[in-house]
Design a protein that fits this description.
Blueprint: E1 2-7, H1 14-22, E2 40-45, H2 49-58, E3 62-64, E4 67-72, H3 87-94, E5 99-105, H4 121-146, H5 148-152, H6 156-172, H7 180-183, H8 186-195, E6 203-208, H9 219-230, E7 234-238, H10 240-246, H11 251-261, H12 267-278, E8 281-287, E9 291-298, H13 303-310, H14 312-316, E10 318-325, H15 326-332, H16 335-340, E11 345-347, E12 357-363
Parallel strand pairs: 1-4, 1-5, 3-9, 5-6, 6-7
Antiparallel strand pairs: 2-4, 8-9, 10-11, 10-12
Helix pairs in contact: 1-10, 4-6, 6-8
């Protein structure tokens, strides 16, 4: 399952956002640093209005959406890379996630303590990025020391790795997240991936604002947005407190509340969509009389790979994939009607599964 870590300095709204994301109250929220001592984990279903529509058309009882695991990780402070605060624990937990949501405080409130004494979103971002980069530099230095003998012996793989490691040291010294697509390719990218560095993970900056700034943002969010754009990251404006209140309401009440605020979609939904966009993910669907089930795949995944997400036997024995586009299915109302109109087709192993494809796999065990 996809795992996303929620990080940030103490008292920026991480645990409040986590409570809203998971609609659970198991993430303690208090006005002092380190109230989150152990990482809280919650599984969040990905909102997809297509699934309920398909449920009605297929006349089935069960809907199984795809899901994301969110981890609320203890607050970071300056010096975490040297073990300050809960640094060592934080750094261990953040290495385990696929993507990072960095919550940034973008509001003034004299009643909520800021760990640095003043609100400055870009300074907060720099503190976290610097600590992650310093910790990663220590890991890279250790790796360089381990392959010294192989490099001196002229071993090809070691020479490639040494070149990549030195390139990483230069990039990390700048204290920003590293964009894998921009800086590395081929054999280099494979070396970097094995290192599992924190500074190479995709990032979403979550600008946490007060209610009246939710629609248009403020000067703080404009700064964060500019920074995110310059660093190939994404930015979403969220009011963690409002999201927590929305989590307490029913679906219709929540929609009315959002309408009153002039917002079409909740921050949580926008956050989840941002994760999918950032990680370049897609959803395909299996739908029948028993259930409607959503499955997550990377963009560009071929039909056998998609089959393997359901079961390894499906991929090993893959023969064909029967594809029905979602829009065509909804217009026709059934698989039979789609087949009669020639809208359902058989695809082979080279077919790239598209977002929203309804798929039935043919395989032999």
């Amino acid at each position: 399952m996809l795992k996303t870590g929620i990080v940030g300095l103490p008292n920026v709204g991480k645990s409040t956002l986590f409570n809203a994301l998971t609609s659970a109250k198991n993430a303690q929220s208090a006005n002092y640093p380190f109230c989150t001592i152990e990482p809280n984990v919650g599984v969040v279903t990905v909102p997809d209005e297509r699934l309920e529509i398909l449920k009605d058309l297929c006349k089935c009882k069960e809907v199984i959406p795809t899901a994301i695991e969110f981890v609320d990780i203890a607050g970071l402070v300056k010096g975490a890379s040297q073990g300050e605060g809960l640094g060592n624990q934080f750094l261990h937990n953040i290495r385990e996630v696929d993507a990072i949501i960095q919550v940034v405080r973008c509001f003034d409130d004299e009643n909520t303590i800021h760990v640095s004494g003043a609100v400055n979103p870009l300074d907060d971002i720099v503190i976290i990025n610097t600590e992650l980069a310093l910790a990663d530099m220590a890991s890279v230095e250790k790796r360089i020391a381990r392959i010294v003998k192989q490099v001196k012996a002229g071993e090809k793989e070691a020479l490639i790795e040494d070149s990549v490691l030195k390139k990483l040291m230069h990039l990390l010294s700048e204290g920003t997240f590293i964009n894998m697509n921009s800086h590395f390719e081929g054999d280099e990218a494979a070396v970097v991936k094995q290192l599992n560095l924190m500074s190479t993970k995709p990032v979403i900056y979550c600008a946490n604002v007060l209610e009246f700034d939710l629609k248009d943002g403020n000067n703080y969010t404009h700064e964060v947005e500019k920074y995110a754009r310059a660093n190939n990251a994404e930015m979403v404006i969220v009011s963690a407190k409002i999201e927590e209140e929305l989590a307490e309401l029913g679906v219709d009440e929540a929609k009315e509340y959002l309408a009153e605020l002039g917002i079409e979609d909740s921050g949580i939904n926008r956050m989840i969509k941002a994760v999918y966009s950032l990680l370049n993910l897609r959803t395909f669907i299996t739908a029948g009389e028993k259930e409607v089930h959503a499955w997550t795949i990377p963009a560009g995944a071929k039909a056998p790979q998609a089959a393997g997400v359901i079961h390894t036997d499906f991929e090993k024995g893959f023969i064909r994939a029967e594809i029905t586009p979602y829009d065509d299915f909804v217009k026709c109302g059934s698989y039979a009607a789609c087949r009669d109109k020639g809208l359902t087709r058989l695809e082979g192993k080279d077919y790239e599964v598209q977002d929203g494809d309804l798929v039935h796999f043919r395989f032999a065990v």
